[in-house]
Design brief:
single chain, 469 residues, alpha/beta, 15 strands, 15% strand
Amino acid sequence: MKIFDTMSRYKEEFVPLHPGKVSMYVCGPTVYNFIHIGNARPMIFFDTVRRYFEYKGYDVNYVSNFTDVDDKIIRAAQEEGVDASVISERYIAECKKDMAGMNIMPATTHPLATQEIGGMIEMIQRLIDGGHAYVAPDGTVYYRVRSFEGYGKLSHKNVEENQSGLRTLKVTGEEAKEDPNDFVLWKPKKEGEPFWESPWCEGRPGWHIECSVMSKKYLGEQIDIHGGGEDLVFPHHENEIAQSEAVSGKPFAKYWMHNAFLNIDNVKMSKSLGNFKTVRQISEQYDLQILRLFMLSAHYRSPLNFSREMMEGAKASLERILTGMDHLRDCLKKAEDRALSDAEHAGLQQMKSLVTKFETAMEDDFNTADAISAVFELIKLSNSTVTEESAGGYIEALQQSLTALLQVLGIEPERKELSLDSRVEALIAERQEARKNKNYARADEIRAELTKMGIILEDTKEGVKWKKA
């Protein structure tokens, strides 16, 4: 198996630190709102990586955190007049709903930054004691970047180049930096912000120290794979390396994996452009299995363009898969209990070669696009060779192989029971009330809105019936 390592910029042979075991840390979201589809790409991809390792028999320890203390969370809490924990707890719960919809397996551990403050204070103190960090007069603790010889080895930047990317406007306390490249490990509290006691001041941790501490606690000082979006290479992952290796004296991660960006209709997603899409919004129009299949349809290191046309294509692809699995189940019910024919034995050989093709694609830097292609070839083989007269053993072998490969991709092999979410139910109820009050304009508006969400209503004598478009 080969993995493209961001640090070496080469495909490297995967050799785990401990035979038969894989340790993975993937940076999770900051929970101040619903997750967007940019968050979804690394979630789906690294879940698929984990699934493949488990398919190959590895014992995987998969850790993905929630950043539950942050400027954006605090701002959202202040706007609502609630404690920051109310915001973070709400959106952790909503994030887990979306992850379940995308069939993302719960991590072995989902640590919360606020529950690991003690470990962060301990690591910061070790960095200070080792000369890698210093305390400013106001209690801010900075990491001394020039104290770490390997700084820049992941992003392939030197310290001088990094400086050119820093903000020209300084924030409070930055005038106390020894060097513009130094970054915050601990910051003093501001009025109305959550804070923790520390030897330096009442305050809270910087972003980068959180992941170093959580990775060390749940996976150890060295890990096999560290993953995330390519926007995290610098400064977040670069800073993680500096912190972790300065304390341990050991290489932090053997392999660094980063997925490319996601665009919306060939334009970078942003709230200011009005093309910002959340996973929850997508779920109102599409089964999130479709979003998952779409995300895996391109190589993870290639930029991916989200559009209605691409999602409709993924929808058709999922339907093709599910129809193929329906065909196998239907034929198996009437299959003959007999020995396999020569043609069926030949079909099994084709099946095995296609399974090998799938595995070869996955082991070449997790090429999910080619892996999906192998699945469609298996579906084609099944559709063209399986009938009600086929031997039961032949049908079962195809069914088991396809199910196993679909599970690696996180695609459920059976159709979901259609269920309306709370928003759709509320809209239908509102429409009924509008019709009752003879507010037909509003009723028509709701019908149009539901149509956009992929729900078609039928007014019958028995009441309102609905179906997915």
